[in-house]
Amino acid sequence: MVAAINATLKEALAADDHVVMLGEDIADPKGGVFGMTKGLSTEFPKQVFNAPLSEATIVGAAVGLASSGFKPIFEIQFTDFIPPAFNQLITNVANLRWRTAGEWSCPMVLMAPYGAYLPGGSIWHSESNEGIWAHLHGLKVVIPSTPEDASALLWSAIQGDDPTLFLVPKHIFRKRSLAATVEPIPIGKAVVRRTGTDITLVSFGNCMELCEEAIETVAHDGVSVELIDLRSIKPLDMETIIQSVEHTGRLVVVHEDARTTGIGQAIVTEIVANPDHFSLLYSAPRLVARQDTYIGYNPLLEYAALPSTEQIVEALRGVME
């Protein structure tokens, strides 16, 4: 995924000199804390720059650049570091199109490594918190789970006219896979990774790996699971979820964020609060999520708080009862 992102950024910088990048330590020789921008400042010295250690400055600069005809792509070292820029995001970035009645827009891409399952990171290095960012009207939030989707979604975000938060799941962003031909993906369109007849399982990001493991386990029980990868949580593709529930009648949602007010609760609510969708269910939907607590420094504490394969298996078997 890191290699796919780097290649996509390189292509975008080469195609348009109005694409500019700013971030902490993104210039060579470091190329970002995880190497996602390695080599880019050497090849595009007039477009790729290091930023001060100030997230508010990084995000604030995007408003002026985007309003002036540039396409800023900014990197924050970890999603945990975005809060210092929260005022800029909510006051200037996300609402620019709305408060100017469409006269101005802010076509910014804000990239940030995201999530846990890399033991010992604790707070400031292991949070997800996508539920917070999804609450900002006007801000798109995408989370790929494959190199192909990382490349395709990033390209779509760069070509779009709205600010996009591009979260890169750290646990799987160096997981190798065979790359297929990459085509741009419309932001807001989920994908069915596996077809099934008994249960609809919805997830994204790091938790997709856990879901795949859980599906293999319950397959021994004769349970057929349809797996949906959201890819985007703002906008949210409820249509694909509903179409799946129409033929499975059962729903399990898994997300890495804290349980309370997470995107999984929103999905379950959308299903059970609509009489037409509620009538499709054979059993109560299940939500598997992180406990409402911070990620601990000790790996044992980290994994105790996070969703596990075992918890997903339990939820899948539970909706079948």
Would you spell out the secondary-structure blueprint of this structure?
Layout: H1 2-15, E1 19-23, H2 40-43, E2 48-50, H3 55-67, E3 71-75, H4 86-93, H5 96-99, E4 109-114, H6 130-134, E5 140-142, H7 147-159, E6 164-169, E7 191-194, E8 199-203, H8 207-219, E9 225-229, E10 232-234, H9 238-248, E11 251-258, H10 263-272, H11 275-278, E12 286-290, H12 299-305, H13 309-320
Parallel strand pairs: 1-2, 1-3, 3-4, 4-6, 5-6, 8-9, 8-11, 11-12
Antiparallel strand pairs: 5-10, 7-9
Brief summary of the model shown:
By secondary structure, the chain is an alpha/beta fold.
Characterise the protein shown here.
The structure is a single chain. The chain has 321 residues and is of the alpha/beta class. 37% of the residues lie in helices and 18% in strands. It contains 13 helices and 12 strands. The chain has helices at 2-15, 40-43, 55-67, 86-93, 96-99, 130-134, 147-159, 207-219, 238-248, 263-272, 275-278, 299-305, 309-320, and strands spanning 19-23, 48-50, 71-75, 109-114, 140-142, 164-169, 191-194, 199-203, 225-229, 232-234, 251-258, 286-290. Helix 8 (207-219) links the parallel strand 8 and strand 9 (225-229). The radius of gyration is 20 Å and the shape is globular. The mean pLDDT is 93.
Question: In which order are the strands of the major sheet placed?
Answer: 2-1-3-4-6-5-10
Query: How many strands, which pairing sense, and closed or not: the largest β-sheet?
Result: 7 strands, mixed
Which range best describes the helical content: under 10%, 10-25%, 25-40%, 40-55%, 55-70% or over 70%? 25-40%
Beta-strand content estimate: 15-25%
- Average pLDDT taken over every residue: 93
Number of helices: 13
N→C terminal distance = 38 Å
